[in-house]
Design goal:
43 residues
């Protein structure tokens, strides 16, 4: 029973890291999309 909190905290920290990476990836994609749109606007 003593193992459960540590396993839970490890899973939570990994989940938070994955969330951070997903948020960063989404921001990068949005930046790329805005750049592409800006390029299309100014040929």
């Amino acid at each position: 029973m003593m193992m459960m909190p540590s396993i839970k905290s490890v899973v939570c920290s990994k989940g938070i890291k994955c969330l951070d990476q997903a948020i960063q990836a989404r921001e990068i994609v949005e930046n790329l999309v805005t750049l592409v749109r800006a390029d299309q606007r100014h040929p």
